[in-house]
């Protein structure tokens, strides 16, 4: 989006000094016609390896902005302007995208899909005193030591344990783990699954890693086949997932293939075809099980919105989380009664909402207090709800 003329003089200085000076403090302004405006940043990948998932998350934020286009600050109504940047699924580009949001003087940031880019940008937001609310970035490091980062999803230690419990409950005694080298989400979730599964008495018979942009997995899958595991846990991107799934089945591997929340994406089914049948995953939301009235309203309205935008009408969990992150942002802005980032950060600590994915409030680390995950499988070319799971 174009920078407003009123900021033209100061922005050139802020671009280079915003991390150390006060230029990045969130502010409000008047749009043409006199309407007051507050900016919320959408920090998401819309290109690169995670572009598909990032767009789904962004669609939830855009829809939230459509249904909640204004916020009241001190009794006055402000228009919420969603400022979108593409972090390109890349840690270096994430820094550039974060700096752009700082220069745009956003008051709060939403995102990102992908823990690695969220971690990379975290210190920039903290230095600029702009609170960020992650939607689906599940790695614990996103919020650790960062008083300005919050999130509305559950964490990978929980998700890894949930999937280990599921594997154990369904008779799996041996497991293979496949993770992406250098990817915080993949390596973190794989590690948490391994620890939890071993703790339940399971045996990890193979641990394999692959490089970013790798497309041939037959060598590591051949190693896994020789170990004949009951389950393969392979948390990875939606780009990599169908390749792993198809090549595993082509090699005659019959083990259950499982992963985390990133695999709840229809493109995996489209690209893996019948090989995707029986895949199991954990996720944050199921449209067949609305948590409350807000969820029921979201489901019907968002389906219509997806249709208008020529998108698949199956609601991804990350879209619901994107919507909830926006709700938390406007609730915090209203509670703070200010566009100032530090004031909004302080307000977020006490925010409590009934969101689409359930009740949301934050603990001392800025993490959502959540204790339930949805387990789904792929059956007849569709995601099918199996059960909800909690970890005590």
TrEMBL record:
PROSITE patterns in the cross-refs: PROKAR_LIPOPROTEIN
Protein name: Amino acid ABC transporter substrate-binding protein
One Pfam family matching this protein: Peripla_BP_6
Species assigned in the record: Lacrimispora celerecrescens
Family membership noted in the UniProt record: Belongs to the leucine-binding protein family.
Keyword list, A-Z: Signal
Extent of the signal sequence: 1-21
Domain of life of the organism encoding this protein: Bacteria
Annotated ranges, domain Leucine-binding protein: 38-381
